[in-house]
Amino acid sequence: MKLRNIIIVVLLAAVVLTFHIVRRNSVMRGIESEVRPAEVVRLLTPSEVDSLILQAAPTLRSTRIKDIDKKAVAASLLKCPYIDKVDVGLTTGGKLTATVWQHVPVMRVFLNDDEFYLSRKGTVMPLAPAHYCHLLVGSVDPQQTDEVRSLASLWAVASFLHDNPKYGDIFDQAHVSAGGDIVLVPKLGDFSVIVGDTACLKEKFENLWAFLDQGISQTGWDIYSTVNLKYRGQVVAIKREGF
Questions:
Q1: Nearest to 122 by CA among 159, 86, 164, 149
Q2: Nearest 10 degrees: CA dihedral of 159, 163, 164, 167?
Q3: Which of 76, 94, 113, 203 is the most exposed place for a label (fewest CB within 10 A)?
Q4: Are strands 124-125 and 171-176 parallel, antiparallel or unpaired?
């Protein structure tokens, strides 16, 4: 009985070993790509990931599994400005798997004659012509000389609004004025919201929300020309002429 069990174990090991050898010497049978996270604004599709892989390794489809360099595939994908992280593997069926984590875009910026995306991590990314992205639009006044600081301010506000959609869904534009103030333009109403700098954003937007709920919702969205959040603990609203 013991001998029989030993023989069965040996045979099973031989089958597994044979399968492993055959698999490693067989040609790759395809690519399975996935883009994560699924809920973000899409800059990249699985089929585009497949294309990036094949552009970097045109002979991959005819390559034996044992000769596939997964690290090289991952390195080629990380050259794409939209990709943050990559995990490359092989299935038992002989397919190459590529799971990529896309950078999360939070703003489309117009700066001088250039346009680009800012990601949640602060990465600058080129536009994705094949994909329409409905994002907060950011710009900087031409008279503002500190572009680096202005971009940092835009990124901070865009990231806050992305992380807090309760507030973020209200606005579609953000601007850095000549004096360095962040100014937001809401989707509804013909008024602007002066945020000032990026300090105490949570408090500022909580105050704004209370004002919108208790003030504008009662009087209407067109009665004010400016709502100023610059001053600590205050909301200073300026009415239009005629109101």
A1: 159
A2: 30
A3: 113
A4: unpaired
Q: How many residues does the chain have?
A: 243
| Mean pLDDT calculated for residue range 22-34 | 70
Pick the CATH number of 23-102 from 3.40.190.120, 3.30.230.70, 1.10.260.40, 3.10.20.310: 3.10.20.310
The pTM for the full model equals 0.83
Distance of alpha carbon 210 from alpha carbon 223, whole angstroms: 17
Residue 70 and residue 90 in contact, taking contact as beta carbons nearer than 8 Å: yes
Q: Is residue 108 very low, low, confident or very high in pLDDT (cuts 50, 70, 90)?
A: very high
Q: Are strands 136-140 and 171-176 parallel, antiparallel or unpaired?
A: parallel
99-135 b/e with 16+ CB inside 10 Å = b? bbebbbbbbbbebeeeebbbbbeebebeebeeeeeeb
Helix (H) or strand (E) holding 13: helix 2-25
Say how far apart CA 67 and CA 193 lie, in whole Å: 58
Please identify which residue in the block is written with the tokens 């080629």: 76
Helix (H) or strand (E) holding 21: helix 2-25
* Assigned architecture for domain 105-239: 3-Layer(aba) Sandwich (3.40)
